[in-house]
Task: inverse folding
């Protein structure tokens, strides 16, 4: 597989994970559903995956960047699987609204699993021609990187507004910042 195709896959991977993280923030604000600590850890897993993809987009494809993606995806899959296990008992309500029949943490597990599978496939197709000394980031790649960075900043700010400098509550009902003015 040539370097241009791999670069496109990395840009699309970065875009896909950015959209997932951005949708989590949009749903948080529009439905007023505050993420629990496990949800925030899953978002951290998505950020780690985004960072690995972004390294490939900015600096060129390298196996160690895929390692970062895999570590982030494994971390995120473990936290989402933990949350799924908390809500698998019949009669136990799910946390948050369901989207197309599945909750955020279930979708996160599926997406992390797809990420692990996709990166494994890219690594199986790896050859020494994949790494080039003359990597040039495309304008599209730069744009996606900027959107990804903004998305991470939105999540960092919203998490601070929710939890403040304290440990996040297990079942949050309001933003820490808005509670300061009550």
Result:
């Amino acid at each position: 597989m040539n370097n241009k195709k791999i670069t496109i896959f990395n840009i699309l991977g970065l875009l896909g994970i950015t959209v997932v993280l951005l949708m989590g923030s949009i749903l948080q604000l529009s439905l007023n559903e505050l993420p629990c600590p496990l949800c925030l850890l899953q978002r951290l897993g998505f950020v780690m995956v985004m960072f690995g993809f972004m390294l490939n987009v900015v600096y060129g494809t390298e196996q160690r960047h895929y390692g970062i993606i895999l570590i982030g995806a494994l971390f995120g899959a473990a936290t989402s699987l933990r949350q799924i296990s908390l809500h698998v008992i019949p009669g136990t309500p799910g946390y948050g609204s369901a989207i197309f029949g599945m909750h955020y943490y279930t979708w996160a597990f599926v997406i992390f699993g797809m990420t692990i599978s996709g990166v494994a496939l890219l690594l199986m197709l790896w050859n020494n021609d994949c790494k080039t000394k003359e990597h040039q980031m495309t304008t599209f790649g730069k744009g996606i990187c900027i959107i990804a960075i903004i998305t991470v900043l939105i999540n960092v700010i919203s998490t601070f507004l929710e939890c403040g400098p304290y440990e996040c509550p297990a079942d949050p009902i309001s933003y820490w910042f808005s509670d300061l003015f009550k």
